[in-house]
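User: Second chain of the day. Same drill as before.
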Amino acid sequence: MELENAVAVVTGANRGLGLRFAQQLVERGAKVYGAVRRPETIDIPGVVPVKFDLTDPATIEEAAKIASDATLLVNNAGVSTRAPLLDGDFADIRLEMESHYFGTLSAIRAFVPVIESNGGGALLNVHSILSWVHTLGSGSYNAAKAAAWAMSNSVRAQLAPRGISVTALYVGFMDTDMASFVAPEDKIDPAEVAKMSLDGVAAGVAEVLADEQTRWAKQNLSAAL
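Assistant: Same format as last time:
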């Protein structure tokens, strides 16, 4: 997919990886909508703020109407409650699944007809090494990201005949607020991840494995991790 003159919708564009996606897409010549819960938090030159909440289907549908010229959807928004499955707050566990799976799927369902009507394009879904490696302290996040992995694989096959490619990003810890509990030396620069991911979308690849840990995890999926 050619990113110059593309029309991109980036969810969660006001900080972290989403901010880097929005900035770099503008630099590459794309028109960009920043889809966030609080549009007033978007302060990026060249980015159009749009209200969007993964847990509120009405805002997703309205965002698809506003961004009616979209050709690229970057599903970046998400949450991390770090709730364990057996004794964590069930509301937190539901929020993880509502955000990473149901909310993202709702965004895909809303924007696919838009992208198709504009001649086709691409989806970029942000996943995690925790789609495959399930750590003790993040049970709800693990489950939600594993479900999202399956979703990307399923919709990829369904969307290919409709002229829409699906690139899934898998990455370990990035230097963002969500990973503030991780030591700096164990985190990757989100700007570097954004560049790799957008290059992957441009090339039409199915998966971007952004760091060595993630490449190791994918290679060892059949092992007992």
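The domain at 7-219 is CATH 3.40.50.720 (Rossmann fold).

User: Great, on to the next one.
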